[in-house]
Amino acid sequence: xxxxxxxxxxxxxxxxxxxxxxxxxxxxxxxxxxxxxxxxxxxxxxxxxxxxxxxxxxxxxxxxxxxxxxxxxxxxxxxxxxxxxxxxxxxxxxxxxxxxxxxxxxxxxxxxxxxxxxxxxxxxxxxxxxxxxxxxxxxxxxxxxxxxxxxxxxxxxxxxxxxxxxxxxxxxxxxxxxxxxxxxxxxxxxxxxxxxxxxxxxxxxxxxxxxxxxxxxxxxxxxxxxxxxxxxxxxxxxxxxxxxxxxxxxxxxxxxxxxxxxxxxxxxxxxxxxxxxxxxxxxxxxxxxxxxxxxxxxxxxxxxxxxxxxxxxxxxxxxxxxxxxxxxxxxxxxxxxxxxxxxxxxxxxxxxxxxxxxxxxxxxxxxxxxxxxxxxxxxxxxxxxxxxxxxxxxxxxxxxxxxxxxxxxxxxxxxxxxxxxxxxxxxxxxxxxxxxxxxxxxxxxxxxxxxxxxxxxxxxxxxxxxxxxxxxxxxxxxxxxxxxxxxxxxxxxxxxxxxxxxxxxxxxxxxxxxxxxxxxxxxxxxxxxxxxxxxxxxxxxxxxxxxxxxxxxxxxxxxxx
Length: 561
Known about the structure:
The chain has 16 helices and twelve strands.
């Protein structure tokens, strides 16, 4: 079976091996140089001639010179085979020269052939190793015979007389040649196994990378938020849908502990909770990047590793904020429909008796002309009647649609009229400062009485919220939305008691109120009328810091003044 090697990977490995070979050779020759210098200094103790020492210096210099040449060839990006061929040729020549000059019986220089055989097998494979083994065997056989017949010139380092017999020569030849080929085989075998293993690892790594890319592609393509965390609750992955849902970027949250970003998830990460979640998806509210509340449908799955142990958690979630808003709107519409049905029949049943009561009390007042206690009691009855009539009138407003009869409404003038009536009321708090910032000609096309009802309810609530005094600001201007629609914008702010955070989501619900004498219909009527005009209302408030109400009423018809 042919194994395809990764070219880039092999080039990188060969480059590293060449540098390592050059460095190793330099280290070895430097060590030999040190030994030579030491022997040169203590020459008389070793009985070594100066000619022998000079030959060693020459050999060392040649090796240093060629090492520099190898580095230059590598830097010039010459094909590694040419570099290796040159190194093999030079090393074989150098070893052979040492054997020729110094003999092989005193110091066995042929052992250096083994190093050349090893790196030849590494770089050139089995054929290269066997080739260098053959060359080494030939040279060794030649010089062994020359030495046996005493035909080779010799510069022995140590003067030792030695006579080689035929049996010793033959034994040395067989052992050495056999060792050369065995070494070539073993080195090439190890290298081939290493290449096969590397190739298999690369193939597995490639398969893993493909699977990883496939997984990431699937995760990124779904419209569901996916987040993975390890057992230490550190966020590892965060897909594009999760970015869009939460407002947090992947770069910002990856590597952080989930407690630092989404602490709301922590309570659902223990095993008992996860087991419960597997039975039914849970709903959770988190805080987004812009501090907005986001409703999520959440599922948590604990991935299991090879050892059947949990290796982390996968959190899968969808943004259900719009769904929850639709549910609330549907519930609100149901309530409004119920109120409308009740109002349609109840108004008639209540108003007629109220009219009779009112007429009777007025007649009694004229006939009896009550004084003292009777007069106060009569006034209490009349005030109660007025309050009940006002409640019925407001109740009916919730059931009515925006009338077709409309006219040009000057918002600035209506606000001035309402503020004048509030200031002249005996309950007016003189400690309240009024700041008005009106744009010229802010007009809408609407029902004048309904607009008056909207603004009167909001302004009255603002004044009532400042029992200890404060600042009431009213601003009007034109506003163009992103969809190129033009609105009349009214911003009413106060520095009163504010609204608790838990109550903000309920303020537009019918009959919800924190006032002792309130009916809970004021803001419900405002919201109903604003929605009828396809406008928008937004209330921002903090308890103890005041409230800001922003109204947008569409300008459906330009007025000519």
